[in-house]
Amino acid sequence: MKAPEELRSHRWFGGGELRDFSHRARSRQLGYNPEEHLGKPVIGILNTWSDINPCHMHLRERAEQVKRGVWQAGGFPLEFPVATLSETYQKPTPMLYRNLLAMETEEILRSYPIDGAVLMGGCDKTTPALLMGAASAGLPAIFVPAGPMLRGHWRDEVLGSGTDMWKYWDDKRAGLIGDAELSELERGLARSPGHCMTMGTASTMTSAAEVLGVTLPGAASIPAVDSAHHRMAAASGARIVDMVWEDLTITQILDERAYSDAITTVLALGGSTNAVIHLIAMAGRSGIDVSLADFDAIARRVPVLANIRPGGAWLMEDFYYAGGLPGLLSRLTDLLHPERVTVTGRTLGEDLAAARVHDDDVIRTRDNPVAAEGGVAVLHGNLAPSGAVVKHIAAEPHLLTHTGPAVVFENYADLKKRVENPAITADSVLVLRGSGPLGGPGMPEYGMLPIPAHLLEQGVRDMVRISDARMSGTSYGACVLHVAPESHVGGPLALVRDGDLITLDVPSRVLRLEVSDAELARRRAEWTEPAPRFERGYGALYSDHITQADEGCDFDFLARAGHNPEPDAR
What is the pTM of this model? Predict the structure, then answer.
């Protein structure tokens, strides 16, 4: 156990030098007497609340519950606003700014008199960003997930945000519903604070955080408006104080076993393809090499047990009452590392000792899975030398082995302009390039390319679609994503032409352009590199240092372990 003099914050407040005197005077300016914080763990609460982030609109209130827990445990809480990454509103994509929030998190934790941190987030890119920054800073830290919103409702339908939005928008384009129905759907899709209640990126990444061991057990699946969420926030505030005294840092928790378990869990959840990129980046911050090969190897032995949309039938509220993530993990213990430590100070196995499943349809048994293999497949071939991914459990099965002629779109604007071409058939392969980490920029979620209206009217609801973009975790379809290297840097996707045959063979993990090497070499000689997207500012920094999708899209100067020197507090 630490002594008060060993607290990091003691260097700011506890000595007899000029700077200590100045710091204590400024604390009084803030309204605090020295006895309120001297010798106590200073807990930084990093809050991503804002007026423009509906997923986090309750975190202003939750921060007060965190503070309550900190005070009760004998700590001293200080709330810090950090960047809010709203998947709904931030364009072209919050992914462009994930690393910016990670940098902000790391530098705030390093530069202020903070002994431990509570990280508050949940919307898609927020979770990995906060954890990447915390991993680089290396202090004791605990994550408070925002929690999923309540299930949606429309007439007699239960709605899943995102997933049913795409579904009914296609029905509108097909002429099956009109503006009046769409207006009703707007009112019913999102009814409360919280992130998407499907197994989208938000639910996937908060679940990954839980199995990594950086949340309290069961935290990720608690609905945002449930009173249990209030209690979890307070308990997290209390626990971080003890973690500081115990000197239990996030670095001790995020080891190679933790990331292996996170991959296993994401695949068993039928989780978002975005988790592949995020976990590679997060592991890199911990000095651990995670690659697409790890996802591929684990996917072949891990079944999908979470029957949650878009790959299943239920929603996160149902998942919580069926046993939540602890229930699912209790059915995977032989595939996990139960001996490793979590923020509780106990082992993962001890945390799961009381876990139960209360509904075998929501959380399936191993002998009755949603799918026999993990929900994401990794593909390779001459069209994706460094890899690509597809969420096969959310695709029409007959399209998982398919050869068809390419219809190529240069960018998103070109897609919107030409996608209604009547010559496109259900056998066509829609190809979007210019949408990767550099080309997008930021890999926008364009990957669920729209199906032409004339095909929707014929009842077509899925086609093979290929891009260097990402797609929302709430999306579905035979969408091949994250093709690497991206077209903007001269990846083979840049060489595809209309009419080229493309083969997708998910069982064999193959993505192949049926064009000779000689012809591809001729086309490459004609290819010219696109102009940079940014000339100044953060965009230029991003463009100069971003890595490719298979490497996690981190900045090259951050994508490794190691801690910068502690600041001189004197």
Answer: 0.97
